Amino acid sequence: MAKSIISEGKTTNEAIENGLKKLNVSKRKVDIKVLENEDKRSFFSILSPRIVKVELTLKEDEQDKENRGEKKDLKVKKEIILSEEEKEKSIANLKKFLKEFSENFSEKIEYEIQEKDNYIHVNLKGEELGFLIGYRGETLYNMQTILSAIAGKGIQNKIRVILDIQDYKQKREKTLEELAEKVANTVVRTKKSIKLEPMKAYERKIIHTKLQQHPKVETTSIGEEPYRKIIVSLKTNKK
What we know:
Blueprint: E1 4-9, H1 12-23, E2 30-36, E3 52-58, H2 60-74, H3 84-103, E4 110-115, E5 120-125, H4 130-133, H5 138-151, E6 161-165, H6 168-190, E7 194-195, H7 201-211, E8 217-222, E9 229-234
Parallel strand pairs: 5-6
Antiparallel strand pairs: 1-3, 2-3, 4-5, 7-9, 8-9
């Protein structure tokens, strides 16, 4: 079912503009139905405040794009079960690299490698490792990509490496979950949608998942990478 909202204003144009802001789309992306027109006012309502109601319905192609975007944020990666031989080879690759890597820094870097069924977890610990995390994990995730490539050297299956540094991911997840709750409460209180700043897919997924079962708000993603962002808004009653 296509997404629809009811919007109000003193004039038809104002009602439409208010609705477009809530949906965060341009006029060409919606179908508009005027529910109450300012020109059809009775003698008895002439002293009442003028209110025009319109229904804006997201066009099917735009709704499909939105749905595809949500599924992209929430998709689960296909599991690849590694053989014991592949695990041993990939871990050996990682150990060799991390040993040489850690020896190149004056800071003491300790690393721990854990094998899982479908990925390998690497955890780096030490003091003053913020430079390996970077702004909002930018350096960390670039390094994770490099480690995945190194682990998969000489192995047919694609090796997935999950990297964490000083428990950054756990702390970041908690921060994002707290943000999601705070934004949801603000949306419920003010009845106004809130657009968050651009986030990476893994961060958007945390927000979506946290608010997925919320009784009063819903989340949608808009824009293209790397500027894709989440909008938190009140749930609409679909008839």
